[in-house]
Amino acid sequence: MLAPQQCSKDARISARRDQIIAAARLCFRKHGFHGAGMAEIAKTSQLSVGQIYRYFANKDAIIEEIVRRMVMKKIQLITGNAHNLQQIAHNLAHRRIGNLSSPFKEDVCSEQKEQAEIDHALMLEVAAEATRNPAVEKIWRDSEKQLFNEAKSFLSKSFPQFSDEEMTAKVESLAVICEGTAFRRLTTVHADAEVLEALYHRYFQDLFNTDFTPSKPE
Amino acid sequence: MLAPQQCSKDARISARRDQIIAAARLCFRKHGFHGAGMAEIAKTSQLSVGQIYRYFANKDAIIEEIVRRMVMKKIQLITGNAHNLQQIAHNLAHRRIGNLSSPFKEDVCSEQKEQAEIDHALMLEVAAEATRNPAVEKIWRDSEKQLFNEAKSFLSKSFPQFSDEEMTAKVESLAVICEGTAFRRLTTVHADAEVLEALYHRYFQDLFNTDFTPSKPE
Prior knowledge:
The structure is a homodimer. Chain A has two domains: 1-56, Homeodomain-like (Arc Repressor Mutant, subunit A), CATH 1.10.10.60; 60-208, Tetracycline Repressor, domain 2, CATH 1.10.357. Helix content of chain A is 73%, strand content 0%. Chain A has nine helices and no strands. Chain A has helices at residues 4-35, 38-44, 49-55, 59-81, 85-93, 110-130, 134-158, 164-183, 193-208. The interface between A and B is large, with 55 and 56 residues. Chains A, B: InterPro entries: Homeodomain-like_sf, HTH-type_Tx_Regulator, HTH_TetR.
């Protein structure tokens, strides 16, 4: 058991890290990883640069923690949703990735929406930076791998009849559709969501060789 | 008809623009849009900054031309391939987007591979930059729209039985899979390409309600 002062020290460290991460997210979103320096992150988080370095060794460590948190959020969403492929088809057709609504919809609170917008921008920033910065490439690859394996392990429980090889291909195909949908989020051509949902619905049924409960999602 | 000196003047302008674009692609790939300035592009293309401005009004104009050329390349690939959904399923399962092989394959010439790597990195850079720069957002959206409409118009010729609304959903679903596959190109988990190809194959057959010739692709 931890002594009370240890608890409060851990809580303080954790709060400081949260404060820095929140500031860094805003700075990276505004100027990209290259444009945002430690000085700007310090200023935005109302700490000194020296204080920042007590919590994160460098900018890559901050990026790593941001990606880690985004992946955790995605894993929570998967484990809350993956059993419901019908809901996933519905969300994809409406371009809802995580809490990320279509920019033209107004059905989640604005704070959630704002954070989801930042997640989306940072995901693209990480992917772009990964093509030229080996440290970020490693962070990105490791996080994608973790996410993939969590999704696969979760879906394997619901569909134990498939071999590991089959399951890997099915999860890859789902991951491609989820990430392609997120990538295309700001495109201007909009397919009719119901027609698109029916296509995904049929594909997922075929993919997992299962009938979904035909109850209306949401 | 153009006079000979007009022809050679046009050819000279065109060659200069190619030279600048090739240099800008390398600079953007290395440092991102923010990190690469006009001075660096000038130096890499062995021209003066003043000369660059005679061909492009600003950095955004260079980005626009780069995106325009990438879209043209993609449209050429579509019009060469879209009739062959079996080939598309094959390429997607092997993560071949355009001339872009899987980084672990060695089946296209190295110059093509290098240009395709740059295309991939620039596509991510454009998408990331589009989230914070309205000028690039417009370039990206317009190019995606053009590409979408070209693909749709091309596929509509092969499958005239579908309504406009149905076709839009089918093309969106294809676009999601193509761009999701490109996005996931550097991920480390690899599904077995044959198993994945079979999944896409069945989906595309269902999508266009058609049987593909079962001849082996390539």
